[in-house]
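Saturday, quiet lab. Running sequence design on the structure tokens for the scaffold JK sent over.
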């Protein structure tokens, strides 16, 4: 199947889809992105993803490239043209094309917009969730505004590669105080021995995940006890369960941290239930 990308107003086969070499996304990582789950051809939590996009852009003083409604049309059209049923749609907005100069380009420079979409292996993901995944820990060496969903992801790239090389699915960043911030592309959670569900409070040190927000809604509705606070690696190792959340992986149980088992070494009940029930709490449009 030939794949199609939306690039600045045009839908093009991937081989012909390209951006200008003076695009500031390419030159400076001067842009932001969103990844939205596609389920049965529908977008999951589009409203919240567009809200977060607006916030990321506003923090970087980049204009919204088009109306929410127009963006919704482009996302859906890209999903449709790529025949995506179960997968993801990726959206990137950069500050635009200009002669290379670190400072902002002239006012009126149009932001660039790229959208791609692809199917994911849903059965493979379910098998991975049934087994649980391993994570490693790495020092959090990122900048202090990772609440902005910037495309500048070098520490995340290196962390994920380190995980792969050690046979793990994800790397958890650990701050200077020894507390877990989040995964290289996911939020991190534990369930304590006394049944409290813990995830780091959303300040500037983590990305405020959309999946995280939906899981919080689900926990509240089910009367489970939630604590938004930092936790250490030792606390995670002593926990009953651990899991990660992201739009592309939903909820994924974590069964090993740095080679040591979490709980009894099998996916936990709460994580598994959250994965099963997640879409009852998410919006699909
Ligand atoms: N943290 C980081 C660093 C991420 O890259 C992601 C995935 N985009 C998340 C958390 C999870 O966010 P979401 O649930 O919105 O996908």
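Result came back. Writing it out in full:
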């Amino acid at each position: 199947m030939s794949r199609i990308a939306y690039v600045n107003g045009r839908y093009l086969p991937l081989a012909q889809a390209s951006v200008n070499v003076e695009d500031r996304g390419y030159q400076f990582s001067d842009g932001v992105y969103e990844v939205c789950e596609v389920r049965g051809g529908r977008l999951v939590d589009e409203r919240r993803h567009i809200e977060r996009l607006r916030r990321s852009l506003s923090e970087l003083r980049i204009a919204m490239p088009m109306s929410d409604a127009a963006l919704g049309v482009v996302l859906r059209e890209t999903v449709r043209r790529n025949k995506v049923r179960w997968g993801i749609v990726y959206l990137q907005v950069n500050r635009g094309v200009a002669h290379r100069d670190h400072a902002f380009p002239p006012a009126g420079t149009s932001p660039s917009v790229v959208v791609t979409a692809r199917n994911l292996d849903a059965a493979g993901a379910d098998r991975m969730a049934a087994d649980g995944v391993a994570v490693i820990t790495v020092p959090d060496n990122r900048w202090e505004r990772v609440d902005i969903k910037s495309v500048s992801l070098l520490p995340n790239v290196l962390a994920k590669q380190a995980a792969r090389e050690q046979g793990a699915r994800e790397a958890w960043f650990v701050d200077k105080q020894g507390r877990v911030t989040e995964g290289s592309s996911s939020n991190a959670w534990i369930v304590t021995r006394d049944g409290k569900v813990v995830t780091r409070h959303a300040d500037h040190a983590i990305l405020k995940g959309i999946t995280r927000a939906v899981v919080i809604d689900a926990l509240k509705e089910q009367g489970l006890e939630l604590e938004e606070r930092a936790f250490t690696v030792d606390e995670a190792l002593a926990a009953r369960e651990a899991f990660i959340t992201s739009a592309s992986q939903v909820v994924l149980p974590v069964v090993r941290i740095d080679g040591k088992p979490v709980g009894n070494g099998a996916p936990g009940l709460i994580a598994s239930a959250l994965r099963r029930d997640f879409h009852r709490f998410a919006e699909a449009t």
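Notes for JK: The CA atoms of residues 32 and 150 lie 4 Å apart. The pocket of 4'-deoxy-4'-aminopyridoxal-5'-phosphate is lined by residues 35, 156, 182, 185-187, 207, 209-212, 245-247 (CB under 6 Å). Ask whether to fix the surface positions before the next round.
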